[in-house]
Each structure stands twice: as C-alpha cells, then as structure tokens.
Fold:
Amino acid sequence: MTDRHLTEAQLDSLLDAPGTLNIDASQHLRACPRCAAEAESLRNALKNFRLAATNLSLLHTPSRAGLATMRQRHFFTFARTAWATGLAAAMIAGSVSLSLLHKPVAVTSVPTVASSSQQKPPAESDDALLQSVDQDLSTSVPPSLQPLDVTPAGESTTSKQN
Amino acid sequence: MTSAILNSQVVPSSAAPAACQPASTLESIDTLHALYSQRIFRFIFTSLRDRDLAESLTQDTFIRAWSARDQFRGDCSPATWLTRIALNLVRDHTRTNRFRFWKNVANTAVDATEFASFLPDHATSAESSLIAHEQVKLVWETVSTLTERQRTVFILRFVEELGLNEIAEITAMPMSTVKTHLYRGLAAIRARHAAAAGKESK
Structure:
C-alpha cells in the first residue's frame, strides 16, 4: 500500500469510471479509511442526486394526454402562423399593386444652356476668330455680293456726278 | 407523504435502459413518449430546475422529434437523438429568453430542500437520512453554479448515466472537451463536499 492519499484526479476517475483505478490506488483505497470514506460519500451523494431526480420525474413526467393537447396547440399555432403569413403576403401584394397603379411620371431632366455649353468642345480660339473677321472685312466685296458688283461704267460715272 | 409515494416508485438505476430500444419505436409517437418521456423530462428538469418549463419542453421535444422523424437515420439510438433535441431546446430557451427565463425561474424554481424531499427514505437511521438529504441539497446547489456546458455534461453522465461517447455525440463536443467539463464539474462537487465535511467535523 502507498502512504499517499488518492489525488483529485484519481478520485474523479473513481467516481466516473471505478474500474480505471490503477493497482496502487486500489490497494490504497482498500487500506485507507479516510480515502475510502471520502470516495463512498461522494459516490452516495451522486447516487442520491440521481435517485431524487428520477423520483421527481416519475411524479411529474407529462402524460400522453398532455402530448395530445400540446400537438393540438402546435397545430393551432401553425394554423395561426399560416393565416398571419397569408394575410401579410396579401397586404404586401395589395400595396405593391397599388403603388404600381399610382406610378409617378418620370421627371426627365432638361438640359440647361450652361450644361450644354459645358458639354460642347471648345470652339476655335479668339485669335483665329478675329483673324477670320479681319479677313472678311479686308475683302472689298464679299463673295456672295460679287455678282452685284459688276456694274456698267457710265452708270457709275453718272452716279458719281450726281 | 411524498416519501410514502416515492418509496413505492423508486426505479433501480438498471431499469428502463431506453437507449437499447430500436429505431422502430419511432413508428408511433405514443410508444416513443412512453419509452423516453421520463428520462427526457428528468434531463430537462435537472438542467432548468423548473417543473412547468420542463413539462412544456418535454412535450416540445417529442413533437419536434415526431415532425422530424424522417430525418432520423438510425446511426444513434432514439434516446440519444431525443436527448440532443431536448438539449437544443434547453439551449434555445435559455439563450433566447435569457432575462425572462431567469425571472420566471426565480418564481417557479424547485429549491434544494424541495428537490431533496424526493429522495426515497431508505436510510437505516434518521441521521443517515439527514446526511443523504444534505448531500443531495449540496449537489443540487453546486450543479446550479456550474457553467451551462459543465452542467449538461455532469447531468448526462451522473443522472442519465450515459457514456462519454454518447455525451460527445449529444453535445457535439470532442471527447477531450467532454472530459474537461466533466472533471471541472466533479471538482466543484468535490470542493463543496469537502468544505461541508470540514464544517461538520469542526
């Protein structure tokens, strides 16, 4: 026999699986009244705990009649849930169809002058524009008025004299 | 009076090994209920400590099992399968209704003294009967201080007397985790037991 008392782990093993205790520990348990008493007391406590739970459950386990009531209750709960779901679905469908009927006219955006001007590519530069204007002015007769410029010589002198 | 009723109703621990029942018990909800309702109720009750709630969740367990019986593949015993459903219900209930649950439990919970009164009076003397009642009260109180997982594993091992493999299957925890929770629970029981024994000896 060993002089050392059972360790906590050995006590746990003894309670959980009594057959797993090693030979030394088993011998000690047989010879040591303190360890034997502790192990026995714990074992009894656990056994009594189970007995009390078992007795309580024998007296209070719900009957099969209770099960039938429960099934009925579950059925009604299911039916109620189904009705509620159906009603909710119908309401959602109704609101969706109403919203489709009263669909607001889509507002189209009118392009503003500023925005259109912004979108245009930059025109020719100012210098080029001025140059073209100068060129137009420096031309004595614009090309479109050239047919009018061909006048009889006498007519022109008369007019000069007048 | 309770003791008188109980003495005639004590079931030996070897009785009703429901785990050995074949899967054919799933053919009728009445058979299923007759075979397993007591142990399912016991598990739920010791987990939640509320009789009314345990009754309600026991019925829920059977209704749920019956609705899902097609999913039972038979790779575990019906008892294991039912206990797993019961455990899920207990977890759902305590997690989703945490605040309301604790409030309700405070009103209808079974206390240690009431629970100990269900212990059959087989003691040879008044003193040993008193000791047994005190031990049961102590375990009942200590179990309430365990974490949810420790409590579940402890109850499955020492009340339902399931093997570690089955516990691992029911709780979906690895075997090593089951052992850890079990030994922590046992350590708490041992500590309280030793403290009480120390007080008595003084």
